[in-house]
Amino acid sequence: MTDNSPVNNQLQTQASDISLFNNCSKFIIGQSTINVVAGNQYNTQSGGNDNAEWIKAPNPFENFNAAYPKIIEGTGTWLLDHESFQKWKSNLNGSLLWLQGKAGSGKTFLCTNVINDLRKNCTVFFYYFDTRDKVKADYQGFISSLLCQVAKEAIEKGNASAQIELEKLYNSSKKGDFLVAENIEATLVNLVMTMGTTYVIVDAMDECAEEYQDKLLALVDKFLTKLKNCYMLVSSRPHIDMAHKEVGIISLDNQLSDVGIGSDIKKYVDTKLQKQRAWSPELKAEIKDTLVNSANGQ
């Protein structure tokens, strides 16, 4: 006896539809490729653009992971508590904060501390210029690294507008083989524009190759002019010509004679001296005074 009930008819229709896929290995719907794995199982792959691996870029986590373990516990907290930093973080005092200091003043460790603080509750992207690695001193390496980080964030959050921008760049660059700075810049700005409040930390701007310094400063200005949701903290030696009108400055050289770095130096020296158990308290005190006074230029 044939079962002509509505339920059975619906089941037969679905079975017929599914059987269409049994002999297929691949078919395309819109921009997505459907790959049949076995029988009626399948998965999707969106145009090769479902991850950011096609964006070749330096990895800033190498620098972060190298710096973070070297931070002495309790140091750098003065910056996180600093009035200018708190206003910048709360978006109350301009969108650019510039950490100035001479070579060896601890800018990289302070930036690392800031990154670690922000990434707990905020969207933060970062980069370390580094003359020890030619690629990390290159302007295109910088913007490619930021783009890679932003792209991963957008993909993870399912940001449809950002993924459209990435698809355009992926196709125009021949799957990432012909990425040029102008297109990377444009896509980077467009992607960040689709996000909420975003923080960008750039350490050692003065270590960017000299021929690209003007481009770097122009991009910083473009970010802060076009992106009202973007807040940047940069570090460098004081000689960089930062023309952006709304720049807040924290000078590490001034902090040496204030709380700030002066207290960091004392904590660092104390930590090192504690390991010298054979030294007398008097010798340790003398060494500490000499090192701290030397750091303060006395």
TrEMBL record:
Q: Which Pfam families match?
A: NPHP3_N (PF24883)
The lineage, from the top, is:
Eukaryota, Fungi, Dikarya, Basidiomycota, Agaricomycotina
Note the Gene3D superfamilies from the entry. P-loop containing nucleotide triphosphate hydrolases
Q: Which UniProt keywords apply?
A: Repeat
UniProt key word Protein transport:
no
Q: Does the keyword Transcription apply?
A: no
Residue stretches in coiled coil: none
This one is known as NACHT domain-containing protein
Which superkingdom heads the taxonomic lineage of this protein's source?
A: Eukaryota
What range(s) does the NACHT domain occupy? 95-238
